[in-house]
UniProtKB/TrEMBL annotation:
NCBIfam families (alphabetical): acc_sec_asp3
Native source species: Abyssicoccus albus
Protein name per Swiss-Prot or TrEMBL: Accessory secretory protein Asp3
Source organism, top-level taxon: Bacteria
Gene Ontology annotations of biological process type: protein transport
Amino acid sequence: MIDNKYIVNWDSIDKNTFMYGSCIEFDKGVMFENLLMPSGTVIHEWFMTSQYFSTRLVPSLPILKRGYHYKLEIKVESTPKNSVYLKIKFYRRYKSIIDSMTVTTDDFSFIYPEDAYEYSIELLSASVERFYFEYMTITEMRHSS
C-alpha cells in the first residue's frame, strides 16, 4: 500500500549548486552541462531543514517518519548513461552523521533511522558531461496488515 508521495524539484540555483564551468537551464526540469567536472563532485544538495535567516534557503525535502519505509525514485537522463548518482545522509540532532547511502539506480528503498533528526540528498557526478533532471519522488510505503 502506498501512503504519501512527495515530489522533489530542483527549481533554483543556490550555494549548494556546483556552478564552476556549468551551464544550467531551467524549464520543466533542469538541463545541466559541465564537460570538465571531476567525478565525485556534489552537483546539487537538498535539505529537510535549514536555518533560513543565515542561509536564505527554504527546506526542499519532506519530513520523514522514523522507522518508516520509503522509496526514492529519480527521473534523470545523463550522458554518459548512469553518470549521476545520489547520496542520502542521515543526521542526529546536532549534525553528526548516523548513516549515509549511495544510490546508483533510478529507484531505491530505505528505512528512515529511528534516531535520525534530519537528512539531506546530494546529486553527485560520476564523470557526467550533461544531464536532464526532471524530479525525484519520495514515497512512504506501508504494508497492509
